[in-house]
Fold:
Amino acid sequence: MMDIVNHINELLFRYECVIIPGFGAFLTHHQSAYTDKDTNTFMPPSKTLSFNRQLQTNDGLLAAHLAKIYGLSYQEALQDLREQVQIWTEQLENKTPLHFVQLGVIESDQEGNWQFSPDPKNIFQAKSFGLGPVKRVEVNREGLSTPEQKVIPIQTEETRRNAASKYIRYAGAAVAIALVLGLGGFTWYKNDTQQYNLTQQRLAEQELEKQIHTASFTIANPLPAITLSFTKENRPYHIVAGAFREVENAEKRVAQLQNEGYTARILRENAYGLHEVVYNSFASKREAINELRKIVRTENENAWLLVMEDK
Structure:
């Protein structure tokens, strides 16, 4: 006899939804970390477990997993599942609670409604991974030394003007001394300098004319290259329209769905060599489930939800 409950536990580590065909689905829900203000305690991230009787349409996940584990064909594993579901259903109709190890208890009330009570010690709790609540302790900052701050003098407009005035006085004095010393030899130097300047000017003009024809320009400080990065939106919830052995048939189905207004595509080739065609992919599980219900109700009762990171 197959230990179906144990394999449901294994699959819930990797998937957020495990459907038992004709019976219902177990779902895990991520609980973010938060602070309990009443107890001043930090609560780590965790997962909670629920059961939804409305999700009964076979998505192939559990049957394919059992077939692989026990070396059965897919149809044989599906038949064993149906027999086990019949036993569970009869047990609940007789008002006998169902105890799922490490998951919880399902029982039928007086009106025939199934009620699920998750196991408070189930394996999906954060403490099963070594995480537990952390008590926040206030830090006493009295007596803590602060690093010594270095005082940097601020240069004001007035100090800058005083410094500039001082430099100008020094420069003026130096110019005056140079004029006095050079005035005597200025007459002799003037004629010789004029002749030299004319010669150098002609040489410079000739050199400049040569360089104009071979001039090249470079940018001393070019702008840095700009690298743009784009983050792909994660859409792990896929509504599967069908799986096809031949890729041509899968492409025809994609074209048909696109004409109907869906953003259909071939998602992948699964482990059984089938090309899975999806209506659409969603980032939100709630949006995906709402769309799945609409599709199952109006056009394709065999559509199912696949949770997988889209690579």
Remarks:
- Helices lie at 4-14, 61-70, 74-93, 157-182, 186-213, 247-259, 285-298.
- The chain has seven helices and 13 strands.
- Residues 235 and 283 are 4 Å apart (CA to CA).
- Residues 1-136 form one domain.
